[in-house]
Amino acid sequence: MKVVLLAGGTGGAKLAHGLQMVLPPGDLTVIVNVADDTERFGLLVCPDLDTILYTLSGLADREQGWGVAGDTSSALAMFERYGEEAWFRIGDADLATLVHRDRLMREGSSLTDATAATAAALGIATHLVAATDDRMRTWIQTDSGEEIDFQEYFVHRGQQEIVRAVRFDGVEATHPSQAALDALATADLVVIGPSNPIVSIGPILAIPGLREALVASSAQRIGVSGIVGGRALRGPADRMLASLGHESSAVGVARLYAGLVERFVVDEVDAGLAPAIEALGMSVSVLPTVMVSDDDRARLAAALLELVEGMLGE
Amino acid sequence: MKVVLLAGGTGGAKLAHGLQMVLPPGDLTVIVNVADDTERFGLLVCPDLDTILYTLSGLADREQGWGVAGDTSSALAMFERYGEEAWFRIGDADLATLVHRDRLMREGSSLTDATAATAAALGIATHLVAATDDRMRTWIQTDSGEEIDFQEYFVHRGQQEIVRAVRFDGVEATHPSQAALDALATADLVVIGPSNPIVSIGPILAIPGLREALVASSAQRIGVSGIVGGRALRGPADRMLASLGHESSAVGVARLYAGLVERFVVDEVDAGLAPAIEALGMSVSVLPTVMVSDDDRARLAAALLELVEGMLGE
User: Fold this and answer.
1) Phi-psi region of A245 (alpha: psi -120 to 50; beta: other; left: phi over 0)
2) Domain A3-135+172-313 coded CATH 3.60.10.10
3) Does the pTM exceed 0.90?
Protein backbone atom coordinates (compact mmCIF):
# COMPACT_ATOMS: atom_id res chain seq x y z
CA MET A 1 0.00 0.00 0.00
CA LYS A 2 1.47 3.34 -1.07
CA VAL A 3 1.01 5.82 1.75
CA VAL A 4 1.49 9.59 1.75
CA LEU A 5 1.70 11.53 4.99
CA LEU A 6 1.37 15.31 5.15
CA ALA A 7 3.44 16.46 8.08
CA GLY A 8 5.06 19.34 9.89
CA GLY A 9 7.21 18.95 12.97
CA THR A 10 7.12 16.67 15.99
CA GLY A 11 3.69 14.98 15.82
CA GLY A 12 3.98 14.38 12.11
CA ALA A 13 7.51 13.10 12.54
CA LYS A 14 6.41 10.54 15.10
CA LEU A 15 3.62 9.23 12.88
CA ALA A 16 6.03 9.15 9.94
CA HIS A 17 8.30 7.00 12.05
CA GLY A 18 5.40 4.71 12.98
CA LEU A 19 4.34 4.31 9.35
CA GLN A 20 7.92 3.65 8.31
CA MET A 21 8.08 0.88 10.90
CA VAL A 22 4.97 -0.94 9.67
CA LEU A 23 5.16 -0.37 5.89
CA PRO A 24 7.50 -2.13 3.46
CA PRO A 25 10.60 0.04 2.82
CA GLY A 26 9.92 2.73 0.25
CA ASP A 27 6.12 2.58 0.45
CA LEU A 28 5.90 5.77 2.52
CA THR A 29 6.24 9.31 1.19
CA VAL A 30 6.19 12.19 3.66
CA ILE A 31 5.26 15.57 2.18
CA VAL A 32 6.72 18.13 4.53
CA ASN A 33 5.94 21.72 5.37
CA VAL A 34 8.66 24.21 4.41
CA ALA A 35 6.95 27.45 5.42
CA ASP A 36 8.78 27.63 8.74
CA ASP A 37 12.13 27.34 7.00
CA THR A 38 14.49 30.17 7.77
CA GLU A 39 18.02 31.35 7.11
CA ARG A 40 20.73 31.26 9.73
CA PHE A 41 24.42 32.01 9.24
CA GLY A 42 23.70 32.32 5.53
CA LEU A 43 22.36 28.76 5.39
CA LEU A 44 18.87 27.47 4.71
CA VAL A 45 17.34 25.88 7.80
CA CYS A 46 14.42 23.46 7.32
CA PRO A 47 13.17 22.63 10.82
CA ASP A 48 10.33 20.33 9.79
CA LEU A 49 12.27 18.46 7.11
CA ASP A 50 15.20 17.96 9.44
CA THR A 51 13.12 16.88 12.42
CA ILE A 52 11.63 14.18 10.22
CA LEU A 53 15.04 13.37 8.72
CA TYR A 54 16.51 12.78 12.18
CA THR A 55 13.42 10.97 13.46
CA LEU A 56 13.32 8.53 10.55
CA SER A 57 17.06 7.87 10.73
CA GLY A 58 17.00 7.27 14.48
CA LEU A 59 19.33 10.21 15.11
CA ALA A 60 16.72 12.50 16.67
CA ASP A 61 16.95 13.98 20.11
CA ARG A 62 13.67 12.55 21.36
CA GLU A 63 13.63 14.51 24.60
CA GLN A 64 14.12 17.84 22.92
CA GLY A 65 11.89 17.14 19.93
CA TRP A 66 14.37 18.61 17.43
CA GLY A 67 18.00 18.22 16.48
CA VAL A 68 20.39 15.30 16.79
CA ALA A 69 20.73 13.30 20.01
CA GLY A 70 23.97 14.00 21.87
CA ASP A 71 24.76 16.97 19.68
CA THR A 72 27.22 19.64 20.82
CA SER A 73 27.03 23.41 20.42
CA SER A 74 30.61 24.51 19.78
CA ALA A 75 29.76 26.14 16.46
CA LEU A 76 26.95 28.15 18.00
CA ALA A 77 29.31 29.54 20.64
CA MET A 78 31.69 30.52 17.86
CA PHE A 79 28.91 32.14 15.82
CA GLU A 80 28.12 34.21 18.89
CA ARG A 81 31.73 35.39 18.96
CA TYR A 82 31.22 36.50 15.38
CA GLY A 83 28.26 38.58 16.48
CA GLU A 84 25.51 36.27 15.24
CA GLU A 85 22.32 35.79 17.23
CA ALA A 86 22.26 32.41 18.92
CA TRP A 87 18.67 32.05 20.10
CA PHE A 88 17.97 29.69 17.23
CA ARG A 89 19.86 26.70 18.61
CA ILE A 90 21.56 24.81 15.82
CA GLY A 91 23.72 21.96 17.08
CA ASP A 92 27.01 21.02 15.46
CA ALA A 93 25.79 17.84 13.73
CA ASP A 94 22.71 19.75 12.63
CA LEU A 95 24.99 22.43 11.17
CA ALA A 96 26.66 19.73 9.09
CA THR A 97 23.25 18.91 7.59
CA LEU A 98 22.71 22.57 6.70
CA VAL A 99 26.16 22.88 5.15
CA HIS A 100 25.74 19.65 3.23
CA ARG A 101 22.33 20.66 1.88
CA ASP A 102 23.59 24.12 1.03
CA ARG A 103 26.39 22.59 -0.97
CA LEU A 104 24.03 20.29 -2.86
CA MET A 105 21.68 23.18 -3.63
CA ARG A 106 24.55 25.43 -4.75
CA GLU A 107 25.52 22.62 -7.10
CA GLY A 108 22.04 22.77 -8.58
CA SER A 109 19.86 20.39 -6.54
CA SER A 110 16.33 21.38 -5.70
CA LEU A 111 15.38 21.25 -2.03
CA THR A 112 13.53 18.01 -2.73
CA ASP A 113 16.56 16.47 -4.48
CA ALA A 114 18.91 17.61 -1.72
CA THR A 115 16.55 16.19 0.88
CA ALA A 116 16.32 12.88 -0.97
CA ALA A 117 20.12 12.70 -1.06
CA THR A 118 20.53 13.40 2.66
CA ALA A 119 17.78 10.92 3.53
CA ALA A 120 19.38 8.24 1.37
CA ALA A 121 22.78 8.91 2.94
CA LEU A 122 21.22 8.36 6.38
CA GLY A 123 19.76 5.06 5.20
CA ILE A 124 16.13 6.17 5.09
CA ALA A 125 14.00 4.23 2.61
CA THR A 126 11.04 6.56 3.14
CA HIS A 127 10.67 9.29 0.53
CA LEU A 128 11.05 12.65 2.22
CA VAL A 129 9.63 15.37 0.01
CA ALA A 130 9.43 19.15 0.37
CA ALA A 131 5.84 20.26 -0.22
CA THR A 132 7.28 22.87 -2.57
CA ASP A 133 10.74 23.68 -3.87
CA ASP A 134 9.72 27.33 -3.98
CA ARG A 135 10.15 29.79 -1.19
CA MET A 136 7.25 30.49 1.16
CA ARG A 137 7.46 31.78 4.70
CA THR A 138 4.96 31.90 7.54
CA TRP A 139 4.50 35.29 9.17
CA ILE A 140 2.60 35.70 12.39
CA GLN A 141 0.61 38.77 13.37
CA THR A 142 0.46 39.00 17.13
CA ASP A 143 -1.98 40.88 19.31
CA SER A 144 0.50 43.73 19.51
CA GLY A 145 -0.27 44.29 15.83
CA GLU A 146 3.30 43.44 14.93
CA GLU A 147 4.00 40.90 12.17
CA ILE A 148 6.97 38.65 12.93
CA ASP A 149 8.45 35.70 11.12
CA PHE A 150 7.54 32.26 12.33
CA GLN A 151 10.78 31.36 14.10
CA GLU A 152 10.82 34.74 15.84
CA TYR A 153 7.37 33.86 17.18
CA PHE A 154 8.01 30.19 17.78
CA VAL A 155 11.55 30.03 19.10
CA HIS A 156 12.72 33.52 20.04
CA ARG A 157 9.54 34.65 21.76
CA GLY A 158 8.60 31.15 22.92
CA GLN A 159 5.04 31.22 21.47
CA GLN A 160 4.00 33.56 24.27
CA GLU A 161 2.14 36.04 22.12
CA ILE A 162 -1.45 35.74 21.01
CA VAL A 163 -1.72 35.00 17.29
CA ARG A 164 -4.19 37.21 15.45
CA ALA A 165 -3.37 36.28 11.86
CA VAL A 166 -1.15 33.91 9.91
CA ARG A 167 0.15 34.70 6.45
CA PHE A 168 2.14 32.47 4.10
CA ASP A 169 4.38 34.97 2.40
CA GLY A 170 5.10 34.11 -1.23
CA VAL A 171 2.68 31.18 -1.34
CA GLU A 172 0.81 32.44 -4.41
CA ALA A 173 3.94 32.01 -6.53
CA THR A 174 4.73 28.50 -5.30
CA HIS A 175 4.08 25.18 -7.00
CA PRO A 176 3.85 21.77 -5.38
CA SER A 177 7.07 19.85 -5.84
CA GLN A 178 6.82 17.29 -8.63
CA ALA A 179 7.65 14.56 -6.15
CA ALA A 180 4.70 15.61 -3.99
CA LEU A 181 2.31 15.58 -6.94
CA ASP A 182 3.61 12.20 -8.10
CA ALA A 183 3.20 10.72 -4.64
CA LEU A 184 -0.35 12.04 -4.31
CA ALA A 185 -1.27 10.72 -7.77
CA THR A 186 -0.19 7.17 -6.97
CA ALA A 187 -1.12 6.94 -3.29
CA ASP A 188 -3.51 4.37 -1.88
CA LEU A 189 -3.78 6.26 1.39
CA VAL A 190 -3.12 9.89 2.28
CA VAL A 191 -2.85 10.74 5.96
CA ILE A 192 -2.93 14.28 7.25
CA GLY A 193 -0.70 13.91 10.28
CA PRO A 194 -1.28 15.17 13.82
CA SER A 195 0.74 18.33 13.18
CA ASN A 196 -0.36 21.90 13.84
CA PRO A 197 -3.29 22.41 11.42
CA ILE A 198 -2.63 26.14 11.08
CA VAL A 199 1.13 26.47 10.58
CA SER A 200 2.26 22.92 9.68
CA ILE A 201 -0.55 21.45 7.56
CA GLY A 202 -2.03 24.85 6.61
CA PRO A 203 0.95 25.97 4.50
CA ILE A 204 1.07 22.65 2.63
CA LEU A 205 -2.61 22.94 1.70
CA ALA A 206 -2.13 26.60 0.75
CA ILE A 207 0.29 25.77 -2.07
CA PRO A 208 -1.70 26.41 -5.26
CA GLY A 209 -2.59 23.05 -6.79
CA LEU A 210 -1.71 20.91 -3.83
CA ARG A 211 -5.16 20.82 -2.23
CA GLU A 212 -6.62 20.08 -5.66
CA ALA A 213 -4.16 17.23 -6.18
CA LEU A 214 -5.12 15.84 -2.80
CA VAL A 215 -8.84 15.99 -3.59
CA ALA A 216 -8.29 14.54 -7.07
CA SER A 217 -6.34 11.61 -5.66
CA SER A 218 -8.05 8.24 -5.77
CA ALA A 219 -6.49 7.47 -2.38
CA GLN A 220 -8.34 6.98 0.85
CA ARG A 221 -7.84 10.11 2.95
CA ILE A 222 -7.63 10.19 6.72
CA GLY A 223 -6.96 13.09 9.06
CA VAL A 224 -5.50 12.64 12.51
CA SER A 225 -6.19 15.18 15.22
CA GLY A 226 -3.17 16.78 16.83
CA ILE A 227 -5.47 18.20 19.48
CA VAL A 228 -6.25 15.74 22.26
CA GLY A 229 -8.66 16.64 25.04
CA GLY A 230 -8.65 20.23 23.78
CA ARG A 231 -4.89 20.54 24.14
CA ALA A 232 -1.98 20.36 21.75
CA LEU A 233 0.40 17.63 22.86
CA ARG A 234 3.23 19.96 22.02
CA GLY A 235 3.42 23.52 20.73
CA PRO A 236 0.88 26.30 20.49
CA ALA A 237 -1.75 24.74 18.18
CA ASP A 238 -4.50 24.88 20.82
CA ARG A 239 -4.01 28.55 21.67
CA MET A 240 -3.51 29.39 18.00
CA LEU A 241 -6.78 27.71 17.01
CA ALA A 242 -8.63 29.62 19.73
CA SER A 243 -7.15 33.04 19.01
CA LEU A 244 -7.84 32.63 15.28
CA GLY A 245 -11.52 31.93 15.97
CA HIS A 246 -11.51 28.14 15.65
CA GLU A 247 -12.59 25.67 18.25
CA SER A 248 -9.61 24.40 20.17
CA SER A 249 -10.59 20.76 19.89
CA ALA A 250 -10.51 17.81 17.52
CA VAL A 251 -13.75 19.22 16.08
CA GLY A 252 -11.98 22.47 15.31
CA VAL A 253 -9.25 20.58 13.48
CA ALA A 254 -11.74 18.38 11.62
CA ARG A 255 -13.55 21.47 10.38
CA LEU A 256 -10.32 22.65 8.72
CA TYR A 257 -10.08 19.34 6.85
CA ALA A 258 -13.73 19.18 5.80
CA GLY A 259 -13.98 18.10 2.17
CA LEU A 260 -10.40 16.82 2.25
CA VAL A 261 -10.68 13.59 4.23
CA GLU A 262 -13.30 10.89 4.47
CA ARG A 263 -12.25 9.81 7.90
CA PHE A 264 -10.97 11.58 10.96
CA VAL A 265 -9.12 9.95 13.83
CA VAL A 266 -9.53 11.27 17.35
CA ASP A 267 -7.98 10.12 20.57
CA GLU A 268 -9.88 7.94 23.02
CA VAL A 269 -10.40 10.91 25.34
CA ASP A 270 -12.25 12.64 22.52
CA ALA A 271 -14.62 9.77 21.65
CA GLY A 272 -17.55 11.97 22.70
CA LEU A 273 -16.75 14.41 19.87
CA ALA A 274 -17.56 11.83 17.20
CA PRO A 275 -21.10 13.05 16.45
CA ALA A 276 -19.99 16.64 15.93
CA ILE A 277 -17.26 15.48 13.53
CA GLU A 278 -19.56 13.07 11.70
CA ALA A 279 -21.86 16.03 11.11
CA LEU A 280 -19.02 17.46 8.96
CA GLY A 281 -19.40 14.51 6.59
CA MET A 282 -16.54 12.38 7.89
CA SER A 283 -16.40 8.98 9.47
CA VAL A 284 -14.71 8.99 12.85
CA SER A 285 -12.32 6.46 14.27
CA VAL A 286 -11.26 6.48 17.89
CA LEU A 287 -7.65 5.39 18.49
CA PRO A 288 -4.92 5.94 21.05
CA THR A 289 -3.13 8.79 19.25
CA VAL A 290 -0.64 9.86 21.90
CA MET A 291 2.77 8.60 20.78
CA VAL A 292 5.42 8.37 23.47
CA SER A 293 7.30 5.16 22.69
CA ASP A 294 8.27 3.63 19.37
CA ASP A 295 5.58 1.03 20.05
CA ASP A 296 2.97 3.78 20.31
CA ARG A 297 4.09 5.10 16.95
CA ALA A 298 3.95 1.73 15.24
CA ARG A 299 0.60 0.87 16.88
CA LEU A 300 -1.10 4.05 15.65
CA ALA A 301 0.37 3.54 12.18
CA ALA A 302 -0.80 -0.06 12.03
CA ALA A 303 -4.27 0.94 13.23
CA LEU A 304 -4.48 3.54 10.44
CA LEU A 305 -3.58 0.94 7.84
CA GLU A 306 -6.20 -1.41 9.25
CA LEU A 307 -8.80 1.35 8.95
CA VAL A 308 -8.00 1.65 5.27
CA GLU A 309 -8.26 -2.05 4.72
CA GLY A 310 -11.65 -1.75 6.39
CA MET A 311 -12.58 1.23 4.22
CA LEU A 312 -11.47 -0.56 1.06
CA GLY A 313 -13.63 -3.51 2.08
CA GLU A 314 -16.68 -1.34 2.75
CA MET B 1 57.01 50.95 14.75
CA LYS B 2 54.89 49.47 11.94
CA VAL B 3 55.79 45.83 11.57
CA VAL B 4 54.83 43.38 8.83
CA LEU B 5 55.25 39.64 9.30
CA LEU B 6 55.12 37.18 6.41
CA ALA B 7 53.80 33.94 7.81
CA GLY B 8 52.38 30.54 7.13
CA GLY B 9 51.20 28.15 9.82
CA THR B 10 52.43 27.28 13.30
CA GLY B 11 55.87 28.93 13.54
CA GLY B 12 54.65 32.11 11.90
CA ALA B 13 51.58 32.12 14.11
CA LYS B 14 53.69 31.95 17.27
CA LEU B 15 55.90 34.82 16.20
CA ALA B 16 52.81 36.81 15.19
CA HIS B 17 51.51 36.27 18.70
CA GLY B 18 54.82 37.37 20.20
CA LEU B 19 54.90 40.53 18.09
CA GLN B 20 51.29 41.28 18.97
CA MET B 21 52.20 41.03 22.64
CA VAL B 22 55.07 43.52 22.47
CA LEU B 23 53.79 46.02 19.87
CA PRO B 24 51.13 48.68 20.42
CA PRO B 25 47.71 47.40 19.25
CA GLY B 26 47.29 47.76 15.49
CA ASP B 27 50.99 48.19 14.69
CA LEU B 28 51.35 44.62 13.41
CA THR B 29 50.19 43.35 10.03
CA VAL B 30 50.54 39.66 9.24
CA ILE B 31 50.57 38.78 5.55
CA VAL B 32 49.48 35.17 5.38
CA ASN B 33 49.98 32.35 2.91
CA VAL B 34 46.79 31.16 1.20
CA ALA B 35 48.28 28.57 -1.16
CA ASP B 36 47.42 25.69 1.14
CA ASP B 37 43.78 26.76 1.26
CA THR B 38 41.38 24.07 0.20
CA GLU B 39 37.67 23.36 -0.12
CA ARG B 40 35.82 21.06 2.23
CA PHE B 41 32.06 20.50 2.37
CA GLY B 42 31.69 23.23 -0.24
CA LEU B 43 33.41 25.76 2.04
CA LEU B 44 36.72 27.55 1.67
CA VAL B 45 39.23 26.38 4.28
CA CYS B 46 42.20 28.66 5.03
CA PRO B 47 44.45 26.69 7.39
CA ASP B 48 47.18 29.30 7.76
CA LEU B 49 44.87 32.27 8.15
CA ASP B 50 42.77 30.42 10.70
CA THR B 51 45.71 29.10 12.70
CA ILE B 52 46.89 32.69 13.06
CA LEU B 53 43.34 33.89 13.74
CA TYR B 54 42.96 31.45 16.62
CA THR B 55 46.49 31.99 17.90
CA LEU B 56 46.12 35.78 18.02
CA SER B 57 42.69 35.57 19.66
CA GLY B 58 43.84 33.10 22.30
CA LEU B 59 41.42 30.45 21.05
CA ALA B 60 44.02 28.15 19.50
CA ASP B 61 44.54 24.56 20.46
CA ARG B 62 48.20 24.94 21.37
CA GLU B 63 48.87 21.23 21.76
CA GLN B 64 47.49 20.34 18.37
CA GLY B 65 48.89 23.36 16.54
CA TRP B 66 45.67 24.01 14.63
CA GLY B 67 41.99 24.50 15.38
CA VAL B 68 40.18 25.80 18.44
CA ALA B 69 41.01 24.57 21.95
CA GLY B 70 38.33 22.29 23.40
CA ASP B 71 36.58 21.99 20.06
CA THR B 72 34.19 19.10 19.37
CA SER B 73 33.77 17.05 16.20
CA SER B 74 30.04 16.37 15.95
CA ALA B 75 29.74 17.99 12.54
CA LEU B 76 32.58 15.90 11.14
CA ALA B 77 30.87 12.70 12.28
CA MET B 78 27.70 13.89 10.52
CA PHE B 79 29.58 14.80 7.34
CA GLU B 80 30.90 11.25 7.34
CA ARG B 81 27.34 9.97 7.46
CA TYR B 82 26.69 12.08 4.38
CA GLY B 83 29.53 10.31 2.63
CA GLU B 84 32.13 13.06 2.91
CA GLU B 85 35.77 12.26 3.58
CA ALA B 86 36.72 13.13 7.13
CA TRP B 87 40.50 12.91 7.13
CA PHE B 88 40.71 16.69 7.05
CA ARG B 89 39.68 17.28 10.67
CA ILE B 90 37.55 20.38 10.94
CA GLY B 91 36.20 20.95 14.43
CA ASP B 92 32.76 22.35 15.10
CA ALA B 93 33.86 25.83 16.19
CA ASP B 94 36.24 25.87 13.25
CA LEU B 95 33.32 24.99 10.96
CA ALA B 96 31.52 28.07 12.27
CA THR B 97 34.47 30.17 11.09
CA LEU B 98 34.26 28.60 7.63
CA VAL B 99 30.51 29.14 7.42
CA HIS B 100 30.82 32.72 8.66
CA ARG B 101 33.57 33.55 6.17
CA ASP B 102 31.66 31.85 3.36
CA ARG B 103 28.66 33.98 4.12
CA LEU B 104 30.69 37.19 4.13
CA MET B 105 32.33 36.25 0.84
CA ARG B 106 29.01 35.30 -0.76
CA GLU B 107 27.80 38.74 0.28
CA GLY B 108 30.69 40.24 -1.66
CA SER B 109 33.63 40.48 0.76
CA SER B 110 37.11 39.67 -0.46
CA LEU B 111 39.03 37.07 1.53
CA THR B 112 41.02 39.90 3.09
CA ASP B 113 37.88 41.82 4.07
CA ALA B 114 36.23 38.68 5.46
CA THR B 115 39.39 37.90 7.42
CA ALA B 116 39.52 41.43 8.80
CA ALA B 117 35.90 41.10 9.92
CA THR B 118 36.43 37.79 11.68
CA ALA B 119 39.62 39.04 13.32
CA ALA B 120 37.87 42.18 14.54
CA ALA B 121 34.98 40.11 15.88
CA LEU B 122 37.46 38.03 17.88
CA GLY B 123 38.97 41.22 19.32
CA ILE B 124 42.25 41.06 17.41
CA ALA B 125 43.86 44.47 16.86
CA THR B 126 46.52 42.98 14.58
CA HIS B 127 45.80 43.29 10.86
CA LEU B 128 45.46 39.82 9.39
CA VAL B 129 45.84 39.98 5.63
CA ALA B 130 45.64 37.35 2.90
CA ALA B 131 48.74 37.57 0.72
CA THR B 132 46.38 37.52 -2.25
CA ASP B 133 42.61 37.54 -2.69
CA ASP B 134 43.07 35.47 -5.81
CA ARG B 135 43.11 31.72 -5.94
CA MET B 136 46.40 29.86 -5.90
CA ARG B 137 47.02 26.32 -4.75
CA THR B 138 50.14 24.40 -3.86
CA TRP B 139 50.58 21.07 -5.63
CA ILE B 140 53.22 18.61 -4.59
CA GLN B 141 54.97 16.18 -6.91
CA THR B 142 56.12 13.17 -4.94
CA ASP B 143 58.80 10.65 -5.77
CA SER B 144 56.10 8.37 -7.16
CA GLY B 145 55.73 10.94 -9.95
CA GLU B 146 52.20 11.69 -8.83
CA GLU B 147 51.12 15.30 -8.31
CA ILE B 148 48.81 15.76 -5.33
CA ASP B 149 47.29 18.81 -3.71
CA PHE B 150 48.96 20.18 -0.64
CA GLN B 151 46.46 18.96 1.97
CA GLU B 152 46.46 15.49 0.43
CA TYR B 153 50.23 15.46 0.93
CA PHE B 154 50.27 17.26 4.26
CA VAL B 155 47.27 15.88 6.12
CA HIS B 156 45.96 12.80 4.33
CA ARG B 157 49.31 11.19 3.61
CA GLY B 158 50.99 12.65 6.70
CA GLN B 159 53.98 14.16 4.82
CA GLN B 160 55.41 10.71 4.39
CA GLU B 161 56.26 11.02 0.72
CA ILE B 162 59.42 12.54 -0.70
CA VAL B 163 58.76 15.89 -2.36
CA ARG B 164 60.31 16.21 -5.81
CA ALA B 165 58.68 19.43 -6.97
CA VAL B 166 56.35 22.13 -5.70
CA ARG B 167 54.06 24.11 -7.97
CA PHE B 168 51.82 27.05 -7.08
CA ASP B 169 48.89 26.46 -9.38
CA GLY B 170 47.34 29.69 -10.66
CA VAL B 171 49.99 31.94 -9.14
CA GLU B 172 50.77 33.73 -12.40
CA ALA B 173 47.26 35.21 -12.45
CA THR B 174 47.31 36.40 -8.83
CA HIS B 175 47.91 39.87 -7.48
CA PRO B 176 49.02 40.80 -3.99
CA SER B 177 46.08 41.96 -1.91
CA GLN B 178 45.90 45.74 -1.66
CA ALA B 179 46.14 45.46 2.11
CA ALA B 180 49.40 43.53 1.76
CA LEU B 181 50.88 46.13 -0.59
CA ASP B 182 49.76 48.97 1.67
CA ALA B 183 51.30 47.31 4.70
CA LEU B 184 54.61 46.70 2.93
CA ALA B 185 54.70 50.28 1.65
CA THR B 186 54.37 51.78 5.11
CA ALA B 187 56.29 49.24 7.20
CA ASP B 188 59.30 50.10 9.32
CA LEU B 189 60.19 46.45 9.70
CA VAL B 190 59.33 43.39 7.65
CA VAL B 191 59.96 40.00 9.23
CA ILE B 192 59.93 36.77 7.25
CA GLY B 193 58.68 34.43 9.92
CA PRO B 194 60.04 30.99 10.86
CA SER B 195 57.52 29.23 8.62
CA ASN B 196 58.28 26.60 5.99
CA PRO B 197 60.34 28.52 3.39
CA ILE B 198 59.11 26.35 0.53
CA VAL B 199 55.37 26.02 1.02
CA SER B 200 54.50 28.80 3.48
CA ILE B 201 56.80 31.72 2.61
CA GLY B 202 57.49 30.50 -0.94
CA PRO B 203 53.93 31.01 -2.21
CA ILE B 204 53.74 34.51 -0.73
CA LEU B 205 56.95 35.52 -2.51
CA ALA B 206 55.75 33.87 -5.73
CA ILE B 207 52.79 36.22 -6.09
CA PRO B 208 53.72 38.52 -8.98
CA GLY B 209 54.59 41.94 -7.57
CA LEU B 210 54.86 40.90 -3.95
CA ARG B 211 58.58 40.18 -3.90
CA GLU B 212 59.12 43.46 -5.74
CA ALA B 213 57.02 45.34 -3.18
CA LEU B 214 59.05 43.76 -0.42
CA VAL B 215 62.36 44.75 -2.01
CA ALA B 216 61.07 48.25 -2.79
CA SER B 217 59.99 48.79 0.80
CA SER B 218 62.04 51.22 2.84
CA ALA B 219 61.57 48.92 5.84
CA GLN B 220 64.30 47.01 7.59
CA ARG B 221 63.97 43.36 6.57
CA ILE B 222 64.80 40.41 8.77
CA GLY B 223 64.40 36.70 8.11
CA VAL B 224 64.02 34.15 10.88
CA SER B 225 65.07 30.57 10.33
CA GLY B 226 62.43 27.93 10.87
CA ILE B 227 65.18 25.30 10.71
CA VAL B 228 67.00 24.84 14.01
CA GLY B 229 69.94 22.47 14.26
CA GLY B 230 69.11 21.16 10.80
CA ARG B 231 65.58 20.18 11.80
CA ALA B 232 62.19 21.76 11.35
CA LEU B 233 60.57 22.32 14.75
CA ARG B 234 57.33 21.10 13.24
CA GLY B 235 56.35 19.82 9.83
CA PRO B 236 58.31 18.58 6.85
CA ALA B 237 60.39 21.69 5.99
CA ASP B 238 63.72 19.95 6.66
CA ARG B 239 62.99 16.92 4.49
CA MET B 240 61.40 19.11 1.84
CA LEU B 241 64.47 21.36 1.64
CA ALA B 242 66.73 18.33 1.26
CA SER B 243 64.67 16.51 -1.36
CA LEU B 244 64.35 19.71 -3.41
CA GLY B 245 68.13 20.11 -3.46
CA HIS B 246 68.54 22.76 -0.79
CA GLU B 247 70.62 22.49 2.34
CA SER B 248 68.46 21.42 5.25
CA SER B 249 69.81 24.07 7.59
CA ALA B 250 69.48 27.72 8.49
CA VAL B 251 71.97 28.36 5.68
CA GLY B 252 69.66 26.65 3.21
CA VAL B 253 66.81 28.89 4.35
CA ALA B 254 68.94 32.03 4.27
CA ARG B 255 69.93 31.27 0.69
CA LEU B 256 66.26 31.35 -0.29
CA TYR B 257 65.95 34.82 1.18
CA ALA B 258 69.18 36.23 -0.31
CA GLY B 259 68.54 39.71 -1.67
CA LEU B 260 65.33 39.97 0.35
CA VAL B 261 66.56 40.54 3.88
CA GLU B 262 69.49 42.43 5.37
CA ARG B 263 69.58 40.35 8.48
CA PHE B 264 68.94 36.72 9.28
CA VAL B 265 68.18 35.31 12.70
CA VAL B 266 69.37 31.84 13.64
CA ASP B 267 68.93 29.92 16.83
CA GLU B 268 71.69 29.68 19.40
CA VAL B 269 72.43 26.09 18.34
CA ASP B 270 73.19 27.40 14.85
CA ALA B 271 75.59 30.18 15.88
CA GLY B 272 78.36 28.38 14.02
CA LEU B 273 76.51 28.89 10.73
CA ALA B 274 76.90 32.67 10.91
CA PRO B 275 79.91 32.92 8.57
CA ALA B 276 78.19 30.91 5.83
CA ILE B 277 75.12 33.12 6.07
CA GLU B 278 77.12 36.35 6.21
CA ALA B 279 78.74 35.20 2.97
CA LEU B 280 75.29 35.57 1.41
CA GLY B 281 75.39 39.30 2.18
CA MET B 282 73.32 39.29 5.34
CA SER B 283 74.06 40.20 8.89
CA VAL B 284 73.38 37.41 11.32
CA SER B 285 71.83 37.61 14.76
CA VAL B 286 71.81 34.70 17.15
CA LEU B 287 68.69 34.46 19.32
CA PRO B 288 66.71 31.80 21.15
CA THR B 289 64.13 31.13 18.42
CA VAL B 290 62.33 28.09 19.84
CA MET B 291 58.95 29.29 21.08
CA VAL B 292 57.19 27.04 23.56
CA SER B 293 55.60 29.41 26.06
CA ASP B 294 53.98 32.81 25.55
CA ASP B 295 57.07 34.28 27.19
CA ASP B 296 59.27 32.68 24.53
CA ARG B 297 57.10 34.25 21.86
CA ALA B 298 57.22 37.72 23.40
CA ARG B 299 60.96 37.44 24.09
CA LEU B 300 61.83 36.60 20.48
CA ALA B 301 59.54 39.38 19.24
CA ALA B 302 61.10 41.91 21.59
CA ALA B 303 64.59 40.82 20.57
CA LEU B 304 63.69 41.34 16.89
CA LEU B 305 62.46 44.85 17.62
CA GLU B 306 65.67 45.62 19.51
CA LEU B 307 67.67 44.43 16.52
CA VAL B 308 65.87 46.96 14.35
CA GLU B 309 66.46 49.75 16.76
CA GLY B 310 70.10 48.75 16.58
CA MET B 311 69.97 48.64 12.76
CA LEU B 312 68.30 52.04 12.60
CA GLY B 313 71.02 53.41 14.87
CA GLU B 314 73.83 51.99 12.75
Assistant:
1) left
2) no
3) yes
